[in-house]
Amino acid sequence: LAKTTQPISMDSYEGQEVNITCSHNNIATNDYITWYQQFPSQGPRFIIQGYKTKVTNEVASLFIPADRKSSTLSLPRVSLSDTAVYYCLVKDSGYALNFGKGTSLLVTP
Amino acid sequence: GAVVSQHPSWVICKSGTSVKIECRSLDFQATTMFWYRQFPKQSLMLMATSNEGSKATYEQGVEKDKFLINHASLTLSTLTVTSAHPEDSSFYICSASTRDPNRAQYFGPGTRLTVT
Questions:
Q1: Is B90 touching A (CB cutoff 8 A)?
Q2: Going by C-beta distance under 8 Å and a sequence separation of 6 or more, which residues neighbour residue A7?
């Protein structure tokens, strides 16, 4: 399983854009990059998944450079309810996810 | 996104008893289901991988006779904690996946187990 590295914590004010970068130097050809959000005492919630370039959905964007050794999750205009732990994972479909410590995001007024 | 449910959402049991937790994929057929455990302030730890119709594969250090996993259909997997002890108290989370490379893995809401 490819290992990922991401900041332990980040702080932001409401309304700002937050970018969380994750490095995954050993990503394999078949691996996808997936981001999850987790609130206390809840299961992780799928945010976005991508393979290369850029992916955008209604809640976030995912930027993946050509070498795929890193990725950046972009959360536009965060609110207090975006305070959570964000996990970056790389996986081959159907296989278990190796959760690291994630990034604890704190959004304040 | 896909929906995965767990039941119960929380359970309290006495030491020495067994507890069964169900995990269901509600709107897709899950060829593979995973069981994770999460202790306070820690990340998720994989316990076992369960493929429909076959025996589960357990991670190192997880006792297969204590944590019984059954994956009898493409929409249901169960985890039974046998002879539970206080140290088994934790947050148990399942996830479901298919072999479709475009498909993400979806998680259930989790089950809080407290053993007294």
A1: no
A2: A20, A21, A103
Encode B63-79: b = buried (16+ Cβ within 10 Å), e = exposed. Answer: eeeebbbebeebbbbbb
**Residue B1: what pLDDT?**
64
**CB-closest option in B1, B34, B108 to A96:** B34
Give the Cα separation of B104 and A62 in Å (integer): 14
Task: For residue B64, give the DSSP letter.
Answer: T
Question: With contact defined as beta carbons under 8 Å apart, do B4 and B65 qualify?
Answer: no
Give me the residue label for tokens 């206390």.
Answer: A40
Separation between Cα atoms, residue A65 and residue B70, nearest integer Å? 41
Nearest residue of chain B to residue A90 (CA atoms): B104
**Whether residue A94 has pLDDT greater than 60:** no
- CA torsion sign for B47, B49, B54, B58 is negative
Return the pLDDT at B40. 92
A72: closest CA of chain B, how far (Å)? 18
Q: Judge whether residue A93 has pLDDT over 60.
A: no
How does pLDDT run along chain B (116 residues), one tens digit per residue?
679 999 999 999 999 999 999 999 998 888 889 999 999 989 999 999 988 888 899 999 999 999 999 988 889 999 999 999 999 999 999 999 877 766 788 999 999 999 99
- When CB atoms are compared, the residue of A41, A94, A102 closest to B32 is A94
Residue B113's H or E segment, with its range, is strand B111-115
